[in-house]
Specification:
The structure holds two protein chains of two kinds. By secondary structure, chain A is an all-beta fold. Helices cover 0% and strands 54% of the residues of chain A. In chain A, β7 and β8 form a beta hairpin. Chain A starts with a strand and ends with a strand. The mean pLDDT of chain B is 93. In chain B, the strands form two sheets. In chain B, strands 2, 4, 5, 6, 9, 10 and 11 form a seven-stranded mixed β-sheet that branches. Chain B has a four-stranded antiparallel β-sheet with strand order 1-3-8-7, with no helix packed on it. In chain B, 0% of the residues lie in helices and 50% in strands. Chain B starts with a strand and ends with a strand. Chain B is mostly beta strands. The chains are: A mainly beta, B mainly beta. The interface between A and B is medium-sized, with 22 and 25 residues.
Chain lengths: 114, 114
């Protein structure tokens, strides 16, 4: 069975500063994909960033980057230059190759303070 | 760019009634997924369809059924509604070659069962 664990139910950051959200996962498969989704108060589910497990290079998308440690099964999200619009619930998510369904962590609620 | 369309956006039903949720995937996407997100919870996978055939099944109650039609839209049918069915129901779609892409979520249908 696949599991995703987010140990930080809530985090806060000052505007313009950097914050890192933690995530660990467990899967017995070698072919899988990891994602961070953002869910603002509107509750729309928005893709932030994705990482293919076979790629060693950490994914980056503008102010968002990940630290993917495959051996440790860790997948943290770093948000640089935090903006008020980054305030949301962030879900770490795993998709096993061939299964496709997303397994979500419990989420981390990020507050951005002006 | 076209996004996933879900209808209705909001639905209020009484206990023991039935409900039908509709999902229109992004054009040329051939896979549809349904997720249920209860209040304060992470989304849970219900069921998915690939090329009009059920491809995976999660924690979907027997009272629920779903299908994907020839135009790739999908419907989630829910019968004998219970109070606990009150949730946000997401539909997501993905294009062919899942390994290259990811799931894109619709805005969700908020179901309230009274």
């Amino acid at each position: 069975a696949q599991t995703v664990t987010q140990s930080q139910p809530e985090m806060s950051v000052q505007e313009a500063e950097t914050v890192t959200l933690s995530c660990t996962y467990d899967t017995s498969e070698s072919d899988y994909y990891l994602f961070w989704y953002k869910q603002p108060p509107s509750r729309q589910m928005i893709l932030v960033i994705r990482q293919e497990a076979y790629k060693q290079q950490n994914a980056t998308e503008n102010r968002f980057s990940v630290n993917f440690q495959k051996a440790a099964k860790s997948f943290s999200l770093k948000i640089s230059d935090s903006q008020l619009g980054d305030a949301a619930m962030y879900f770490c998510t795993l998709a096993q190759g061939g299964s496709e369904k997303l397994v979500f962590g419990k989420g981390t609620k990020l507050t951005v303070n002006p | 760019a076209a996004g996933v369309i879900q209808s209705p956006r909001h639905l209020i039903k009484e206990k023991r009634e039935t409900a039908t949720l509709k999902c229109y995937p992004i054009p040329r996407h051939d896979t549809v997924y349904w997720y249920q997100q209860g209040p304060g919870q992470d989304p849970q996978f219900l069921i998915s369809f690939y090329e009009k055939m059920q491809s995976d099944k999660g924690s979907i109650p027997d009272r629920f059924s779903a299908q994907q039609f020839s135009d790739y839209h999908s419907e989630l049918n829910m019968s004998s509604l219970e109070l606990g069915d009150s949730a946000l129901y997401f539909c997501a779609s993905s294009p062919p070659n899942f390994s290259q892409e990811t799931q894109y979520f619709g805005p969700g249908t908020r179901l309230l069962v009274l």
